[in-house]
Amino acid sequence: MFNTKKIILSRKIILMGILLVFLLILTACGNNGEEMPQAKENAFLMDTLVQMRAHGENAEIAVEESMERIREIEKLMSKTIETSDIYKLNNNSKTEIEIDNESIIVLEKALKYAKLTDGDFDPTIGALVELWGIGTEDAAVPEQAEIETALANTGYNHLDLADNSAEITKEGVKIDLGGIVKGYAAEEVKKIVQKYNIEHAFVNLGGNVLVIGDKVDGSPWKIGIQDPRQGRGNVMAVVDAVDLTIVTSGNYERYFEENGKLYHHILDPKTGYPADNNLLSVSIISENSFDADALSTAIYVMGLEKGMKFIENMENVYAMFITEELDVYLSSGLKEIVTIKDSDFNIIEGEEIAN
Ligand code: ADP
Ligand code: MG
Q1: Are residues 114 and 263 in the same domain?
Q2: Ligand 2 ion: nearby residues, β-carbon < 5 Å
Q3: What is the mean pLDDT of residues 88-106?
Q4: Nearest ligand by distance to the CA of 253
Q5: What is the pLDDT of residue 117?
Q6: What is the pLDDT at residue 21?
Q7: CA distance 8 to 30
Q8: What average pLDDT does the segment 216-230 reach?
Q9: Is the CB–ligand 1 distance for residue 253 below 6 Å?
């Protein structure tokens, strides 16, 4: 009697086990199709629209954690949040300030690119950014004398970094990490996505796009490059992307017009004016968003000739330049993954420029 019951019970357990395995296989099958769980979120963070999508078992928690992470980074590195490391540094010049290790990492990378680009990228651009106020209601062309003063308060040699502290060594110098911090945040999102073994994900921090893996159906992500002509919301080209980042800096993102002239938010640290070099936008395509963000700003400042040379000398980093004439210059190796969608634009391969 007792034995039979035991047998029935164990049969039940076996049956349940088989069912469970069957269910697991079913969900596993779903992994190649539409049934794979996915999570999406849009939020306004770091002064821009952040969009994220992930597919996989832990998609939801990965997206949630990523958004939280971006918020944390913003709290440390915003210029305007009074408790941030950058605010503390900017408002206590000539004082060594202890700051978070993450802020050190971003400042170090910013200084690295400042040196590498001979100051075309400069994280001490804060005084000039404040003076121009582009993107705020007070944006206006400053007096030349004000520009001179702000220029004198710009220079990465006025920023000292130590293991866990930093110091602005000249009064009036201000740090602005707007040209690099979104790239850092994108790489931190990548770490979270990888921690949860998610194979397909996408994050866009206001034009700073990073894709992880390919799409669920095995095809590359199609990343649109925005038409840089003002007021046109359409996509002028598409990049096929697998495990890539595409970071665009353009004159159409933040700007104002005065006397028929456009003034945008990417400033030339040598002149104190918005970089004026016939470019509408520069997109950097590579594997690392942190570097690509600094580069997109720097290469925009350099302009086509110098910028193309710079990129052609780098390994695994590509660039797409769009000029005011709507000519599209691609660095070598990029043609294979870029498709122009709008016949107003003409592709010109970049090798000639670089040589
Ligand atoms: P976006 O932030 O619009 O995506 P960028 O990555 O090109 O575009 O960054 C532009 C921002 O970087 C500006 O809003 C400003 O905060 C800062 N910035 C402007 N000019 C420079 C420069 N020459 N070097 C470093 N940072 C800059
Ligand atoms: Mg940038």
Answers
A1: no
A2: 179, 293, 296-297
A3: 98
A4: 1
A5: 98
A6: 43
A7: 33
A8: 94
A9: yes
Answer whether residue 355 shows pLDDT above 60.
no
Report DSSP letters for 235-282, one per residue: EEEEEEESS-EEEEEETTSSEEEETTEEEES-B-TTTSSB--SSEEEE
Q: Is the CB of 128 under 6 A from ligand 1?
A: no
Q: If you measure from the C-alpha of residue 180 to the centroid of ligand 2, how many angstroms do you get, rounded to a whole number?
A: 5
Domain end position, chosen among 168, 201, 231? 168
Same domain? 161 vs 65: no
Q: What is the mean pLDDT of residues 5-33?
A: 43
C-beta neighbour count of 4 within 10 angstroms: 8
- Shared domain for 264 and 325, answered yes or no, is yes
Residue 12 lies in a domain: no
Atom of ligand 1 nearest to the CA of 269: 23
- 179 appears as a binding residue in the annotation: yes
Distance 121 CA to ligand 2 centre (A): 9
Amino acid at 64: E
**Domains: count for the chain:** 2
pLDDT tens, residue by residue, 153-181: 999 999 999 999 999 999 999 999 999 99
Task: Please report which confidence band the pLDDT of residue 63 belongs to, taking 50, 70 and 90 as the band edges.
Answer: very high
- The string of DSSP codes covering 176-203 is --TTTHHHHHHHHHHHHHHHTT--EEEE
DSSP label at residue 143: P
Question: Of 281, 297, 302, which is best to mutate to test ligand 1, by the most ligand atoms within 8 angstroms of its C-beta?
Answer: 297
Name the nearest CA neighbour of 73 among 44, 41, 46. Answer: 46
Per cent of the chain over pLDDT 70 is: 88
Q: Please check the confidence at residue 30 and state whether its pLDDT lies above 50.
A: no
> CB of 226 closer than 6 A to ligand 1?
no
5 belongs to a structural domain: no
Q: What is the CATH number of the domain that holds 111?
A: 1.10.3980.10
pLDDT beyond 50 at 254: yes
Q: Does ligand 1 have an atom closer than 6 angstroms to the CB of 227?
A: no
**Residue 218, in any domain of the structure:** yes
Considering the domain architecture, whether residues 210 and 325 belong to the same structural domain is answered as yes
Domain membership of residue 90 as a residue range: 80-168
